[in-house]
Specification:
Mean pLDDT: 93
Low-confidence stretches: none
Structural class: alpha/beta
CATH architecture of the largest domain: Alpha-Beta Barrel
CATH topology of the largest domain: TIM Barrel
Radius of gyration: 22 Å
Largest sheet: 8 strands, parallel
Oligomer: single chain
Number of helices: 14
């Protein structure tokens, strides 16, 4: 279930046309879409028709494909339209219905509660982190020779340590240490090499910094040793799919974990077709599945952060749309992290090499924060800290 961010009548009309609503229905429904819009994708017509009848009975409505009423089509998307009071009344009526409608009722309640949530708490071995009162800036510390933006700059342990300390002084709220590049087309490094790169840096920084350190890795053993060395957060671009043991490591240590959407691997993610059946819907479904899988393995749901994975198996237009509609990811009820810094899609709009993308990255960070990002992962900490502080002030006024 998705909460559609529909800002204009034109956007509403476009969505109804996509669903296949009768032209007369479009004319009458667009004005209603100024309220609240929940999208269910690809449901059977029998369910869609009951859903529409019950929604009408509480003063709401449901937009369905033209052939759904007489079941001349097998399946349809269904856009539930109404205010929060009508949505809750609809959920109450659906809770006693068959055909999977009870589950839809539960989902409506969950989504409404998640959308109303503005603050979170993450617990690490050393602290409780409050999420929501301000945007947190995560500074990127790549201890790699081949990262797309700063590969080789901090390959030396002492240089990496000094840069980590400098990022804290510049205002970073979290330092993210990574020893394996995940740029498009990159190949994995051995576990031994990754450990050699990151553990000495984390061990020193953990004793020197006041802010938490996250370990950017897909490997369970690297996460295990990093947490023992003083890291407090695991940032896994594979969302716990690369290494089956990662779930056990995170659950055992009880630390926060970032689950990111990526299609394929860093080596393959930009190859072949980048098309999605439903871009935001597919990402939300993937993350929902990964959250549930983590919870079954013993990871507390309140310790999970989500990341839609900008630049990871997405086209330029996909990345722009994810930022524009980032608020839709609030349906998952988890803090949202985005990494936009110096990425290729920014260069696709503004031109220039990674070092020339500061202004474009600042605009993307601004848009992401205004659409609900809680954590922004960046290279240029001092600059982006000022950007985030200003956007937070605008959002609060």
């Amino acid at each position: 279930m998705r909460h559609l961010h529909i800002a204009t009548a034109e956007e509403g009309e476009k969505e109804l046309i996509r669903i296949g609503v009768d032209p007369y229905g479009i004319e009458t429904m667009v004005p209603k879409m100024e309220k609240f819009n929940l999208l269910l994708e690809d449901i059977v017509c029998k369910v869609a028709n009951i859903l529409k009848q019950e929604a009408l009975s509480v003063g709401g409505d449901v937009a369905v494909a033209r052939g759904a009423v007489d079941c001349s089509v097998e399946r349809t998307d269904a856009l539930i339209i109404g205010n929060v009071k009508q949505m809750r009344a609809l959920a109450q009526k659906l809770s006693i219905q068959p055909f999977g409608l009870r589950k839809i009722a539960e989902d409506i309640g969950t989504v409404l509660n998640n959308l109303a949530r503005h603050s979170f708490q993450l617990t690490t071995p050393r602290r409780t982190m409050e999420i929501g009162s301000k945007t947190l800036v995560m500074g990127i510390l790549n201890v790699t020779p081949d990262s797309f933006s700063d590969g080789g700059r901090f390959e030396d342990t002492e240089a990496a340590i000094e840069f980590g300390a400098a990022m804290e002084e510049a205002g970073a709220d979290i330092i993210d240490v990574g020893g394996e590049s995940t740029r498009p087309g990159s190949s994995p490094v051995s576990q031994e090499e990754e450990l050699h790169r990151v553990i000495p840096v984390i061990r020193v920084l953990a004793g020197r910094l006041a802010v938490p350190i996250s370990i950017d890795t897909r490997k369970a053993e690297v996460a295990e040793e990093a947490l023992k060395a003083g890291a407090e957060i695991v940032n896994d671009v594979s969302a716990l799919t690369f290494d089956e043991e990662m779930k056990s490591v995170v659950a055992h240590h009880g630390v926060p974990v970032v689950l990111m959407h990526m299609r394929g691997t860093p080596l393959t993610m930009q190859e072949g077709s980048l098309s999605y059946r439903s871009l935001r819907g597919d990402i939300i479904c993937f993350l929902e599945t990964r959250i549930a899988d983590g919870e079954r393995a013993g990871i507390h749901g309140e310790q999970i952060i989500i990341d839609p994975g900008l630049g990871f198996g997405k086209s330029l237009e996909d990345n722009l749309r994810i930022i524009k509609y980032l608020s839709e990811f609030k349906v998952l009820g988890r803090p949202i992290m985005v990494g936009v810094s110096r990425k290729r899609f920014i260069g696709g709009v503004t031109g220039g090499e990674p070092k020339d993308r500061l202004e474009g990255a600042a605009a993307a960070v601004t848009g992401a924060i205004m659409q609900g990002a809680h954590i922004v992962r960046v290279h240029d900490v001092r600059f982006m800290k000022r950007v985030s502080v200003m956007v937070d002030a605008l959002m609060r006024c």
